Amino acid sequence: MQTPSKSGYEINPEAIFKKSVLKIKGYQSPPQSHVKAKLNQNENPFDVPLEVKAMLADRIVRLAWNRYPVNESPALRKKLADWHHVHPRQILLGNGSNQLLQTILSATVNDGDKICWSSPTFSLFSLFSALYNAVPVDILQTSDLRFPYETFIAGVEKHQPRVTLLCSPNNPTGSEIDLDFLRTLCNAASGLVFWDEAYAEFTDQTAVELLHQYSNLVISRTFSKAFSLAGLRFGYLIANKPVIEQLEKVNLPYNVNIITEAVVSELLDCRDILFERVNQIIEQRQWMYEKLCRIPKLKVYRSKANFILFKCQHARSVFQTLKKHGILVRDVSSYPLLDNHLRVNVGSPEENEYFLDILQTIR
Ligand SMILES: Cc1ncc(COP(=O)(O)O)c(C=O)c1O
Question: CATH number of 50-269: 3.40.640.10, 3.40.1190.10, 3.20.20.70, 3.10.450.50?
Fold first, then answer.
């Protein structure tokens, strides 16, 4: 029997948990408290319009909450498929795109398999790699944060990773990876190529067309950014049918709840309104970029996403000073190559102005 101790119930972790779990730190969730300017999680500053929420509230009340969703949501898959000009059986739905990445890795990676990516990039890639006991093949970007096209292909040819993980536009650098490179990569890789398009709506590039040619490509999209839906959790994959068929076996049944399903379906119908706001974010991104470039001693990177990366002299103290003023940004200094770098996402015009005003005063 377990006995309570001062610190709660003691366990012997080694006897219970996998080594790979004990070894990792877990996802480090940034602060979520209400502040004057919350610019640290790449969220959309604009909530779903109130009229849309009000209309949905009525529909949601009339749904049968006691019933399971129709498995694999055929109607929603069809809507997404029509939007992307693919077949509904090329779509797989998830409780956020992170959950779908986990599905992919559970379906593909055995202990000791290789997973390849290029740091600095999305922190979950290395975390999941450790969790699944994979051998990481991290082909670093150049010191000025350009994607290492040639060395990456050479690395994939040499190691033949089970999965290659890429993100375009890339978090946290904001840069895009070339689609011609992706073609070469899909030819060179015998394993899956996971292409995370979480920020695709903020640029004009998508790899969906490439699915006609490459059967090992899997594209991931989310409603957490452009669609203002981080709180409801929804993401989806687009790939060819043979890949989706295998992943369906691993994805948990009923992983998208009926409320999320109804909201996503409605948002797809009114995406013109949402995309007008995406355009505003893109305009603000340009405005912020220019303003940041005028601040002495900052190195600012161009971005195709809804955030901007910059280097300053003392990132930790800049981060703390901003925080004291109620501004949350993301300190990414611990990422490879990103010593003294901060990432700020584009907020509302008021938040952006406030952030820049305060940043300018910090010496
Ligand atoms: C590259 C990338 N992929 C996926 C996600 C998370 O997506 P979701 O909220 O759909 O799990 C993020 C979130 O910041 C991200 O930066």
Answer: 3.40.640.10
